[in-house]
């Protein structure tokens, strides 16, 4: 019970930080390009996780083993995933990019069919139909019978990021590296790649202390501390479903922060679409937790 309480506190801390992500992204992208933000945030996260790896005595393992996996995993996360995600946030209202990003769990269920040979259940299909109908509502901004999306490229970037994120976790199903080591090695691969892209492109410009602070916040909290808190929660809780359900608290808080801090009006289409997406995710989550729950009660 004590470990479960600790896990819930860690999980709530991670969700609280993730609730600020959409606002932090929009504020930071108001000062710099997605590539600049990606480079700065990744550098900060790499340094933070490197300190944690050293403090836990994992530096030797991090330096010697796991680089073959990190070579491709680092290109997926952080490079491809966050470049696509930041590109979506740069083009779409934060509320839309945030809502679309929540479909990654459903994308993972669909991709698990060809990659892991898993079968879709009727609940999976129903959850997907419900959630992706929410995507359609958000993408069309409520004009559901109009195939002309408000920003097709932004929507495409957001959905592509969910595919990359889902594919990343599926391919890492057999990754035996400790989570902190894996994260640090991935960023060790990603930061040099992002540096080269930045030097070959616009370069990094000074955007003032406000821009620097926003970029550091993204790297420190969204990519760093929130990841650590969530890992602690998942590893300490008796049943993963107990903390995984906490993620449903994040979208409403994110919408309120976007409204009060960024000044985004909350679109009715976003609310309807988000309810459908969370409804699909909730249905899928219920399916996952019903079997363990039944076993525990027997």
From TrEMBL:
Compartments where located: Membrane
Pfam family, one: EamA
Protein name in the entry: DMT family transporter
Keywords: Membrane, Transmembrane, Transmembrane helix
Residues passing through the membrane, by range: 40-58, 70-89, 101-117, 129-149, 155-172, 184-204, 210-230, 242-260, 266-283
InterPro entries assigned to the protein according to its UniProt record, in alphabetical order: AA-Vitamin_Transporters (IPR050638), EamA_dom (IPR000620), EmrE-like (IPR037185)
Annotated EamA domain residues: 7-139, 153-282
Record membrane topology: Multi-pass membrane protein
Family the UniProt entry places it in: Belongs to the EamA transporter family.
The keyword rRNA processing belongs to this UniProt entry's keyword annotation: no
The organism's place on the tree of life at top rank: Bacteria
């Amino acid at each position: 019970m004590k470990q479960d309480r600790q896990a819930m506190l860690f999980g709530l801390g991670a969700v609280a930080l993730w609730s600020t992500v959409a606002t932090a992204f929009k504020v930071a992208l108001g000062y710099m390009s997605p590539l600049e933000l990606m480079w700065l945030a990744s550098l900060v996260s790499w340094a933070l996780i490197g300190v944690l790896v050293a403090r836990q005595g994992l530096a030797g393992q991090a330096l010697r083993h796991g680089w073959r996996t990190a070579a491709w995993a680092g290109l997926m996360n952080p490079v491809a995933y966050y470049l696509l995600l930041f590109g979506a946030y740069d083009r779409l209202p934060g509320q839309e990019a945030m809502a679309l990003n929540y479909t990654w769990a459903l994308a993972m269920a669909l991709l698990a069919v060809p990659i892991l040979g898993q079968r879709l259940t009727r609940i999976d299909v129903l959850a997907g139909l419900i959630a992706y109908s929410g995507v359609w509502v958000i993408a069309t901004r409520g004009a559901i019978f109009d195939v002309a999306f408000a920003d097709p490229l932004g929507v495409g970037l957001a959905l592509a990021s969910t595919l990359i994120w889902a594919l990343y976790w599926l391919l890492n199903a057999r990754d035996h590296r400790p989570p902190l080591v894996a994260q640090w090695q991935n960023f060790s691969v990603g930061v040099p790649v992002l540096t080269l892209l930045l030097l070959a492109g616009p370069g990094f410009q000074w955007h003032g202390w406000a821009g620097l602070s926003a970029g550091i916040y993204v790297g420190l909290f969204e990519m760093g501390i929130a990841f650590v808190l969530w890992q602690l929660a998942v590893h300490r809780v008796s049943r993963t479903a107990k903390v995984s359900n906490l993620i449903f608290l994040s979208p409403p808080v994110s919408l309120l922060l976007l409204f009060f801090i960024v000044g985004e009006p909350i679109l009715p289409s976003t609310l309807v679409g988000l309810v459908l997406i969370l409804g699909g995710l909730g249905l899928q989550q219920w399916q996952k937790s019903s079997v363990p729950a039944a076993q525990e009660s027997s």
